[in-house]
Amino acid sequence: MWRAVIIEDEQKIIQIMRGIAIWEELGIEVVGDAQNGEAGLALILAEQPDIVITDIYMPVMNGLAMIEQLREQQFAGKIIVLSGYSDFEYARQALRLQVDDYLNKPISLTTMKEVLSKSIADLEMLMNEQQQNEKLKEKLTVYEPYVQRKWMNYVVTGSRDADFGGIEEMNRKFSAWPHKGHLVLVFEMVRTERISKLSIVDHNLFYFALSNIIEELAAESWPESELVELYSHHCALLLHANGDIAGEIAESKAVNLAERIAHAVYSFLKIEIIVGIGGVKQEWREIATSTEEAFNAIYFKNRRLSTEHKVYMLPESFAKEEYQPYQQLKQGIYPFKMYQELSEAVSHAQIEQAIAIIQRFIIQQDGMNNIPTAYFRHFCTELWGIIAHALSQAGIAQEQLQTNDEAYAAIESMNTVKEMELWLIGQLQQIGTQFHANTNVKHLQAVEFIIKYVHENYEKELTLTDIANEIGMSRSYLSHIFKKTTDDTFNTYLTKVRMEKAKALIVEGKLLIYEVADRVGYKNVPYFSTLFKKHTGMNPTQLFETYNSAFSSNSENNRTSPSYPAQ
Predict the structure, then answer these.
(1) What is the pLDDT of residue 311?
(2) CA 431 to CA 416: how far, in whole Å?
(3) Residue that wins the pLDDT comparison between 79 and 103
(4) Among 78, 97, 231, 379, which residue has the least CB neighbours within 10 Å?
(5) Are strands 310-313 and 101-104 parallel, antiparallel or unpaired?
(6) pTM of the model
(7) Cβ atoms of residues 49 and 77 within 8 Å
């Protein structure tokens, strides 16, 4: 059923037009009418009809002014003008605004039917093209880099989607893996008050900057490595070691890398991270076990390997009595896998799925009722932190539901696992109601796409128009929802991402200034330097000298730093 609106200043004509039989015959529903251009504009933007039938001469705002504003809003429907005036100037302006038909009153039913039929035929053709584009986009989702990223996430977390059947096939793409050992470093941004209050944009920039630092430093000392995005404030670095390197040597080398990363992150981002290091595994199917060990090392914090930074591994024996409650709880199921699934479900407004994930996990834990109260309270705190972060990603202010202080007070009062389960379900149901009331949620995936697209293509010539064409939305509307969701314009966000990447490249110290500028999408070096100083407060050479000095003075990282090439 196609949808139409009528904009006409005479109520009698509206009634006559609503009463004609053509609508039902052509499968069109008249969803509203208005008697002036201003009211008509509001109606059209609210209803987003397929067809607009409008007069020109109307009070408050005339039809041409209304159409001009619709064009500025990138309205994609058909516009048919019915005018009682045959003035050439009116017709000329209408043609300039690319109306689909311009007809003079009075008009016969036959002509009206022909015009509407033509509009419907055009709409059907456009819809078919969009469907073909959607099919093409579905095919592109299996594009190799995407598949590899998904596969890496499955390998590191131990999760596998039912629809993803290419695990063995993807493994053949990494033919060298069977001849290497593997271990995982998990990084957690400490949830300070500053981190908790970050906007979605600032959090993404922090995460992007953290990823840059990890990748750049890993590339220096451990080239065979892959960074994997995890939920909330976490990411993982998968390291591959040659088969002839003993596990102790690989772990020692991993500790050294973790210290360098923690130092660099604190120096430049002024945030603290905790690093958990898993054990070396000889079989790629055991990589998720190394990830689990890294998460457990962060949780228990019993074996600290650095005096300056929070770098942990599990004690050599993980079978001591104090670990039994946790061992009893997990029973071979990775909690972080559940955390990942929960984060994705909440951030995409899949509330019923989120509730099912929590209930399924609790049901699978036969011994959960026997674990200490302190543990399941900690477990609930972790879950709430993940939910709260996913909410911010979805553009929902946490204070609209429950503040952190209120949530943590509720958690501290819990005495049974059942209380925890009911509280979490209640919170998720309330979140579902808030999602339903929030009109931005349906656009979240478009905003997420823009953010990810920028992070992956920042070095290219990027415009919001190109991205809008990519996802089939109007540029102006996409700009509006991006600004409303992130509080940044597209160009401002793109510049921030480029500057964060430039900082990482400068810290690495291997490129000339003009090479750094080129790597992040700028051909004009003076313009790049001006933007860089505006963003960081110092020029590129000053940043490197500051980092070089701070890094060299650190006793644990007392090594020869690379000399930075002159401009």
Answers:
(1) 95
(2) 23
(3) 79
(4) 97
(5) unpaired
(6) 0.54
(7) yes
In angstroms and rounded to an integer, the radius of gyration of the C-alpha atoms of the chain is: 29
Runs of H (alpha helix) within 438-474: 444-457, 464-471
CATH fold, domain 488-567, is Arc Repressor Mutant, subunit A (1.10.10)
CA distance 120 to 115: 9
| Rounded distance between C-alpha atoms, residue 227 and residue 463, angstroms | 27
Residue 365 CA to residue 312 CA, distance in Å, equals: 27
For residue 183 the two structure tokens come to 């271990």
Query: Which two three-digit tokens encode residue 535?
Result: 């963003």
Taking residues 231-245, report their average pLDDT: 82
Cβ partners under 8 Å of residue 92, min gap 6:
none
Q: What is the pLDDT of residues 165-174, one digit of tens each?
A: 454 555 555 6
| Domain limits, the chain | 2-139, 173-316, 319-438, 488-567
For tokens 């972790």, the residue is: 382
Specify the DSSP class assigned to residue 316: S
From the candidate CATH numbers 3.30.70.270, 3.90.1150.10, 3.40.930.10, 3.40.50.970, the one assigned to the domain spanning 173-316: 3.30.70.270
In CATH, what number does 2-139 get? Answer: 3.40.50.2300
Query: CA 304 to CA 326: how far, in whole Å?
Result: 20
> Band of the pLDDT at 261, cuts 50, 70, 90?
very high
DSSP collapsed to 3 states, 65-92:
HHHHHHHHCCCCCEEEEEECCCCHHHHH
Helix (H, G, I), strand (E, B) or coil at 560: coil
